[in-house]
Amino acid sequence: MAVDYTVIVIYLAGMLAMGWWGMRRAKSKSEFLVAGRRLGPWFYSGTMAAIVLGGASTIGGVGLGYQYGLSGAWMVFTIGLGILALSIFFSARIARLKVYTVSEMLDLRYGGRAGVISGVVMWAYTLMLAVTSTIAYATIFDVLFDVHRTVAIILGGTIVVAYSTLGGMWAITLTDMVQFVVKTIGVLLLLLPIAVIKAGGFSEMKAQLPTEYFDPLGIGGETIFTYVLIYTFGMLIGQDIWQRVFTARSDKVASMGGAAAGTYCLVYAIAGAVIGTAAKVMYPNLESADAAFATIVKDELPMGVRGLVLAAALAAVMSTSSGALIACATVANNDIWSRLRGIVKSPGQDEGPHDEVKGNRLFILIMGAVVVVISIALNDVVQALTVAYNLLVGGLLVPILGGLVWRRGTATGALASVVAGGLSVIGLMWHYGILANQPIYYGLLASLAVYVVVSLATPPTDAAVLDAWRERLAGRAEEPDQTPATPVTSS
Length: 491
Prior knowledge:
19 helices, mainly alpha
């Protein structure tokens, strides 16, 4: 394992070095939180793919393939569909808004009265997303170094918190690009063909496994529909995803680069399912489907290659973890803490002359410590993450997309929609169970109905607010703290 250890150590050291480099470049709020809004198509596509394809998409995607065959691709496939939909229909408008958070967009659209509640919901979602990613370090480091779960979480979490705190979005962008390349080589170009060959090829896989393993709908129509509601719609409104959209150099980069990232996700989804199906042939009696990835890597790959593929898994977890962490800290600082301090500012505008980079860096450090502590305390946060996703989609999907596409939506309608959707989801999870499908179904319907009815029953949004909104959508807003710099043209 010495060669594998060397590969991993070099990779981790490189992550920290990029954090140090990013610290030297992140001199303003815009540079620190959204990479100066200067990413070109190559960097943008790579980092967008990296943020959405995390440990769940890699280890979990292979596990679903092990359990259900090719239809196990649907979870990650719906994530790719969400990125495609976001990029084709909304990314250009989102990028032109020149804001930092989803809540700031709601304030702009509805007149400054919708941001606080949405900020709390978004913060809970990003926090739990960061926690689940951090817990995944335990699985990977256990394979690598056979260390205790707590030590693994502290080790992986400390590295992510360090480079994220030092360099902000610039450091995360650079590390995500490396992680994107490592994942592409490790999973798509190495593990996929090796797994299929070791399993005897597709003909042998078909001979060894039941026919339902090769049914594209074998996982079940209701499960696929639920994946669409949670993951496809979740990709449309998550702060971690929007914060990447804000980094785009132009609305065209946001649209076309995001479409490329979404397409990559579709390929990655199929690859994970095929790897899992191959693992089922080789190891038909694993105690846990989620162990399929680590088992096939450990037993079937040569040294050096094994280290690279494990680095790919580590890259997948780190990219999602760092993206969720900076999103969590951004929401906590800009949407919650600043309001509690009474700092009410126009969306997208600077708070004042104090050191905003220092403040945001402090919040990443604090949120990172909270994430590590929660990750150590919890053994399984699947239910907590489900609660967060249900609240996010059930409470925020309708007012966010409604604000983007329906002029008649009002602030009162948006707030009522958030409350109705959120309370419905909570009540239905209590009634049906946290992992049931009904809460997200009925929660979304309640949110939509209340949004439409209350908006129509209340006075239209003030004309001045809508005029300011249209100015932002038209891209006529300047970035207040943008420092002159050469665009990242090679990306």
